[in-house]
Amino acid sequence: MDQQPVCKRVLLKLSGEALMxxxxxxxxxxxxxxxxxxxxxxxxxxxxxxxxVGGGNIFRGVSGASQGxxxxxxxxxxxxxxxxxxxxxxxxxxxxATDSRVLSAIxxxxxxxxxxxxxxxxxxEKGRVVIFAAGxxxxxxxxxxxxALRALEIGAECLLMAKKKYDGVYDxxxxxDPKAKLIxxxxxxEALERGLRVMDSTALSLCMDNRLPIYVFNMSVPxxxxxILRGERVGTIVETDSEEGEEE
Length: 248
Fold this sequence. Notes:
Blueprint lengths: L8 E6 L14 H16 L3 E6 L7 H6 L4 H25 L4 E5 L8 E2 L2 H9 L3 E5 L9 H11 L4 E6 L5 E2 L11 E6 H7 L6 H9 L4 E5 L5 H6 L6 E4 L6 E2 L1
Parallel strand pairs: 1-2, 1-6, 2-5, 3-4, 3-5, 6-9, 8-10
Antiparallel strand pairs: 7-8, 8-11, 9-10
């Protein structure tokens, strides 16, 4: 592509559910290949790309806690699920000849590298995709919070929040309200005050305090990542000191 991307260094947050495709559990190999191919094309454009992958397609800590497992233990189990997703993504990227590294917040040297901020930045500077696994390494913090934290640590210019089936942030829950409208632009503060489903409140507050813009979009639509990085209007942008959200 001749056009330069609007952001040079980016963090992409992928939910575990995004890897499920039409499956009810686990990883859909075809869906994983599609996502990996789009990631590979973006990096060929010269974008330095880091990724945080959730684990909800395998195990979700909050759900496990509701079934009687200690919350901290359930969260650690969820972190292990994110490692499984991360190494699966790395394997597919390798088959596409895209160099990548998995950095885990929980040490497991036989599988991946430990998370070290300077090492992550160096990998990005060398053109490698960096996949952050195991969340923050602490229970009670979601992978949304891990995405916001890692984005700030590596100096990402924006955070891309990929949704499995929705086009962005809505003024109501589209699952229950057929009249829910897509919001094209909104401030972090207003999203918090209205309790909109951008990401969890801890992560959103962290982005607001550090003026990190968030692009919320539908990962199922081909080329959405590239469209965002070309500066096209896709999904919802959440940014500091935005004017009042516009509804479409």
